[in-house]
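Working notes for the structural subgroup meeting. M.R. asked for a predicted model of this chain before we commit to crystallization trials. I am recording the input and output together here so anyone reviewing the notebook later can reproduce the run.

Input as submitted:
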Amino acid sequence: MSTLSIRLPDSLHRYLKELAEQEGISMNQFIALAVAEKVSALKTVDYLEERSRRGSREKFERVLAKVRDVDPEEYDRL
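Returned structure, recorded in token form:
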């Protein structure tokens, strides 16, 4: 495991400490989870952008054309 030293404004440090205590975890765990969430979000965007480049409007419309044109069930209406 790696060690990372960061500088935080005092107000952010206090808020981080409060949130970690509310969650019942250490500040280190809180920061690790926050970083993991951010990395996951960025990797998801990258994945979706890469998948969209492989997409085909023609194939999409071909599949969409197979869907029956019926009204949605009552429970599924907006």
